[in-house]
Amino acid sequence: MIPMTLREIAGVTGARLADVRDPEAPVTAPSAVDSREVAPGGLFAATAGARVDGHDYAERAVAAGAVAVLASRPVGVPALVVEDVQVALGLLARHVLGRIGPVVIGLTGSVGKTTTKDLLAQVLERHGATVATDRSFNNELGLPLTVLRADAATRYLVLEMGAGRKGDLTYLTGLAPPRVGLVLNVGSAHVERMGGGLADVAQAKGELVEALPPDGIAVLNADDPYVAAMEGRTRAGVVWYGRSARASVRAEGVRLDDRARAAFELVTPSGRAAIGLGLMGEHQVGNALAAAAVASALGLDVTDIAGGLNAARRRSGGRLEIAERPDGVTVVNDAYNANPESMRAGLRAVRALAGGRRTVAVLGAMGQQAEASRARHAEIGALVAELGFGVLIAVGEGDPRALADAARAAGQGVAVHTVADVAGAIGLAGALLEPGDVVFVKASSEIGLSACARALSGAS
């Protein structure tokens, strides 16, 4: 955060000062919406959610070191009172961004955003000061908070941009106009809220490249026809990545080691380099290529790109997170979220990791799949059987039962069980696991199966 006084912030956001003794008090640290994450010298943004109202934690935030609270009403401690805290955060972020001028890189896609963001940040930070989205804070609150972590030394600002509805990316790119826009893929995540079809998802995702300036760069996945079609929606130059010959940044000779980690030869306009990823799953090749394409477009040499990718490690939890138990059981926690594309990728990655070991899948519902939800769950159940999983535990009523029925009907010998809830999954999986098993846990985040993964791995 660049230093700004409370008076300056009030001028930018249209706030009135309440209970402020010193309007010249400087804010020198990033902002937070969680009082437990307040940094001394920072600003606490009091937002009202479905379960918690941040205004109730204003006093605690100031006691923890916040200079003031950005609030929609007086809270009894120094406050900048605005009509809408979210809007005010956006105004402040846009103002700060205009003063520091880093290269803004926006990235979106239906699956792989967070992993790609983490990979790209690990490549770029070797070349210059880099600020990237924390975890998956990619919405109308998370994006401004990321911008407000940047300062005058920041060279690259990597912003993961989520889109749950049409118009979301137009809003986010209005707050932080990108010079580089990366679109990973178009899949069925959030399809229900976007109109029901992949074309609707593509329309929403393409808002990112529409926001790019004529001297900007659109980095597009040559292997995804919906993404490739976005070439016609941008004024910017286009850089292609993927496995096809059309891609100027591509992978050749892809192979997996005994830990299901991909190795390949990276081909870029500046040359070739050997890549050995530290992340699990062949699908990570696409994420790595996307990061490499952005870095290449920004002028990094292939040697620098390869160094960053080869040293990169997982930074965000709940995404193919591996825990090894003393009895030889391997727990793979992929329960941060789920859609058909990520579910298929995770199942295949776990099967490759297991080799000849028995595999157990603990799977819950994939949310927001519209009218096709039952059919998509059935497809996943059939894939579990096709891949040769030994055990399937389907968690929850409704669509998970369709998943279980499809696995049974496939007739591949998978032992299928159904349980009503997370507690049932923990109990049954704990009883069924044998030394040496590999267990895969995945569902949409609202199902709460991450608790099952933690319990099975022995984490607190």
TrEMBL record:
- One Pfam family of this protein, by short name? Mur_ligase
Q: Outline the extent of the Mur ligase central domain.
A: 108-295
Q: Where does the record place it?
A: Cytoplasm
Q: What is its EC number?
A: 6.3.2.10
Keyword Nucleotide-binding among record annotations: yes
Q: What is its main location?
A: cytoplasm
- Domain of life of the organism encoding this protein: Bacteria
The reactions it catalyses are: D-alanyl-D-alanine + UDP-N-acetyl-alpha-D-muramoyl-L-alanyl-gamma-D-glutamyl-meso-2,6-diaminopimelate + ATP = UDP-N-acetyl-alpha-D-muramoyl-L-alanyl-gamma-D-glutamyl-meso-2,6-diaminopimeloyl-D-alanyl-D-alanine + ADP + phosphate + H(+)
Annotated ATP binding sites = G109, S110, V111, G112, K113, T114, T115
Coiled-coil intervals: none
Key words, A-Z: ATP-binding, Cell cycle, Cell division, Cell shape, Cell wall biogenesis/degradation, Cytoplasm, Ligase, Nucleotide-binding, Peptidoglycan synthesis
The terms under GO molecular function for this entry are:
ligase activity
Query: Could you tell me which residue ranges the Mur ligase N-terminal catalytic domain spans?
Result: 33-77
Q: Is-annotated flag, keyword Transmembrane helix?
A: no
Describe which pathway this protein belongs to, using the record's wording: Cell wall biogenesis; peptidoglycan biosynthesis
What does the function comment of this entry state? Involved in cell wall formation. Catalyzes the final step in the synthesis of UDP-N-acetylmuramoyl-pentapeptide, the precursor of murein.
Family to which the UniProt record says this protein belongs: Belongs to the MurCDEF family. MurF subfamily.
Which named protein is this? UDP-N-acetylmuramoyl-tripeptide--D-alanyl-D-alanine ligase
Organism this protein belongs to: Nonomuraea monospora
The upper taxonomy is: Bacteria, Bacillati, Actinomycetota, Actinomycetes, Streptosporangiales
